[in-house]
Design goal:
single chain; mainly alpha
Length: 229
């Protein structure tokens, strides 16, 4: 039987995936983790467990993810579509997206969620969304379409945050255009311009898909919140 000192040395047990998904849902107004979001969160849980066990501060993970997203946007704009730079952009966006989810996962697993951490995470998320839109622009998307994609993402999150500020605790919906989807589109476009340059207007397709999903997602969030106001 382990001694009390041994238990203290190991620290508290890190929650399993089911408990993590339950806590995530509670922190997101009871919204169920389904489909792509559930798959994404399940993968994030696997990566977050060692960080939580090592007691890495969630804020450090948040800042690192935002720094990678900003670096990806700068590189995409500086280098343009295709080549080794596009590969680096895709990897940076994907890694930044993983870290963006790891910070919240680490906080949830360690029981370190706080208003200060939530504010930092929300601000960094908005920077990350803008960076992903700039990646699409750097990969060759028309400026107006990249701006529309980015604006729809910001508007969806503003509507959600404003409703929560008005007292709506239960958002109750996970839209088709949540951050994992936006990150996947930006990273996928950068990778496509590197792997198959010139075979299709990848950035145009990516920005168009993001905009279409963003419009649908905005309606989903607005309708769900409108019923609760």
């Amino acid at each position: 039987m382990p001694t009390e000192r041994a238990r203290q040395t190991r620290g508290p047990a890190v929650p399993g995936r089911a408990e993590y998904l339950r806590r995530w849902s509670l922190l997101h107004g009871g919204a169920p983790a389904t489909g792509l979001v559930r798959a994404w969160l399940s993968g994030v849980h696997v990566l977050a467990v060692p960080l939580a066990a090592a007691r890495v501060p969630p804020a450090a993970v948040t800042v690192a993810g935002t720094a990678l997203a900003a670096a990806a946007a700068w590189l995409a704009l500086a280098a343009g579509p295709g080549g080794a730079a596009a590969t680096a952009v895709a990897l940076a966006v994907a890694a930044g997206g993983v870290l963006d989810n790891l910070d919240g996962a680490v906080a949830v697993l360690r029981g370190r969620t706080s208003d200060r951490g939530a504010l930092l995470d929300a601000c960094c998320d908005r920077v990350g969304d803008a960076a992903c839109a700039l990646v699409l622009l750097g990969c060759g998307a028309p400026a107006w379409l990249a701006a529309l994609a980015g604006a729809l993402a910001q508007l969806q999150e503003y509507v959600r945050a404003r409703a929560q500020g008005l007292g709506v605790a239960d958002v109750g919906v996970v839209s088709v255009a949540e951050r994992p989807v936006r990150i996947a589109v930006a990273a996928g476009c950068a990778a496509a311009t590197a792997i198959a340059p010139g075979q299709a207007p990848w950035a145009l397709l990516g920005a168009g898909a993001w905009s279409a999903l963003g419009a649908v997602g905005l309606v989903q969030v607005a309708v769900a919140l409108g019923r609760r106001l």
